[in-house]
Design brief:
- This protein has one domain (6-101): Ribosomal Protein S5, domain 2, CATH 3.30.230.
- Helix content is 33%, strand content 22%.
- It has helices at residues 35-38, 42-48, 50-55, 72-90, 95-101, and strands spanning 6-12, 15-23, 28-30, 33-34, 61-68.
- Strands 1-2-5-3-4 form a five-stranded mixed beta sheet.
- A hairpin with a 2-residue loop joins strand 1 (6-12) and strand 2 (15-23).
- The termini are far apart.
Length: 130
C-alpha cells in the first residue's frame, strides 16, 4: 500500500514550486538534487523551511520538490509557500500558525514592467530646456 502524500503548489515572483510531502524523517530533494546542494546559502535554506519551524513539525515529513522559473531567492519563497499549503492539507490545525506567520499568502511583488518613452519602469529621460 502506498503511503499518503500531500501535494501543493507555491508561487513567488515568476517561480513556481510543486511540493510533495510524505511522512518521513525530514529528507528533501529539489529538482533531483539534495536540498543543501540546491540552496548553497544558509539564508535561502532557512527561508524555505520556515513553515516547519512555525508549526514545530521539523523532521516529520520528507519532501520532493520540483521548482522552475525566477532566481534562487524567488524559488526559496515559492517552496516556502508550497510547503505551507501542503502542511495545511496534512493537518488542518496547522492552518492558524501558518496564516499568522503569513506563509499562506502569495507574495505577489513582481518587477514592474518598463513603459514606453521611459528608461526603466518609472525613470524618465533627463529634461532638456534647449
Amino acid at each position: 500500500m502506498a503511503s499518503v502524500t500531500y501535494t501543493a503548489t507555491g508561487k513567488r515572483k515568476t517561480s513556481v514550486a510543486r511540493v510533495i510531502l510524505s511522512p518521513g524523517v525530514g529528507r528533501a530533494t529539489v529538482n533531483g538534487r539534495e536540498f543543501e546542494e540546491f540552496f548553497g546559502r544558509q539564508v535561502l535554506q532557512t527561508i524555505a523551511l520556515m513553515p516547519f519551524e512555525a508549526t514545530k513539525t521539523k523532521g516529520k515529513f520528507d519532501m520532493k520538490i520540483n521548482v522552475f522559473g525566477g532566481g534562487v531567492a524567488g524559488q526559496a519563497g515559492a517552496i516556502r509557500h508550497g510547503i505551507a499549503r501542503a502542511l495545511c492539507l496534512a493537518d488542518e490545525t496547522l492552518r492558524t500558525p501558518l496564516k499568522r506567520a503569513g506563509f499562506l499568502t502569495r507574495d505577489s511583488r513582481v518587477v514592474e514592467r518598463k513603459k514606453a518613452g521611459l528608461k526603466k519602469a518609472r525613470k524618465r529621460p533627463q529634461f532638456s530646456k534647449r
